[in-house]
Write a sequence for this structure.
């Protein structure tokens, strides 16, 4: 009886793997890509790829992947792959691992499509200038090396988790929030913490410690579907030193109505994640 149970326990996942492999192998690449396009379309995003197809042992992969919105590209990956992890399957869990490259940087993690869901993310060595989101959404030229780590459990309003990020040697030029320009600056260190819970993504603090300028962004964003239309409830604080303020006097004259005290500016950031603005 024990032997029979063991055979069933190993045989069912093995048969499932074989079925998935055969199914994917006999689906044309165009059909696989169509499934991915429709899945992203439901979330409000577009997908373009240079190539797309089956990945061993069980999964899909693509090259030259561009994910965007109606306003333009937000993410570009040189290579990406999603694979079913076999060991968890034999333990009764369905887990997918994913890997992607952006320039010299990497994105790694895993997720489970079960009802509660589990999602893990790790980013290392990704250059900000290789991420088109900033140019698409803010029209900015940004540089720096991004590191991030996060986890998420649950879906939509029931989701909970956190994301930590850091950027080394950040440079921001030509940043605008809506029509409002922000001062150009170099930042030695950027650190942030995003906590998700109660149907919201709470940006506890994103601090940018720069040469003559200290900047802090905080607030919350409700978790909507698609996320690009999520209304923003953020506050951006700028604390320039006198010498830095003098060098970029014109910008701070435009920001004068947001000055709360000498050397302190507080901007309410509203609009949506896809189209932010300053009130």
């Amino acid at each position: 009886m024990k032997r029979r149970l063991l055979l069933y326990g190993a045989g069912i996942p093995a048969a499932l793997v074989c079925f998935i492999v055969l199914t994917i192998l006999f689906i044309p690449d165009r059909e696989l890509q169509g499934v991915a396009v429709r899945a992203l379309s439901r979330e409000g995003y577009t997908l373009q790829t240079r190539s797309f197809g089956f990945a061993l042992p069980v999964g899909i992969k693509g090259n030259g992947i561009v994910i965007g919105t109606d306003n333009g590209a937000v993410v570009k990956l040189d290579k990406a792959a999603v694979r079913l992890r076999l060991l968890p399957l034999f333990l009764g869990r369905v887990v997918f691992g994913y890997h992607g490259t952006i320039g010299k940087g990497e994105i790694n993690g895993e997720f489970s499509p079960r009802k509660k869901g589990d999602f893990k993310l790790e980013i290392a060595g990704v250059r900000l200038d290789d991420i088109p989101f900033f140019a698409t959404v803010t029209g900015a030229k940004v540089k720096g090396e991004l590191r991030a780590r996060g986890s998420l459990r649950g879906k939509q309003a029931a989701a909970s988790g956190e994301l930590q990020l850091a950027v080394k040697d950040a440079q921001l030029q030509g940043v605008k929030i809506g029509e409002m320009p922000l001062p150009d600056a170099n930042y030695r260190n950027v650190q942030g913490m995003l906590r998700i819970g109660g149907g919201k993504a709470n940006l506890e603090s994103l601090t940018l410690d720069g040469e003559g300028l200290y900047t802090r962004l905080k607030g919350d964003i409700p978790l909507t579907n698609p996320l690009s239309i999520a209304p923003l409830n953020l506050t951006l604080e700028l604390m320039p030193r006198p010498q830095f303020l003098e060098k970029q006097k014109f910008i701070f004259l435009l920001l004068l109505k947001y000055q709360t005290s000498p050397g302190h500016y507080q901007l309410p950031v509203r609009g949506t994640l896809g189209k932010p603005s300053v009130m």
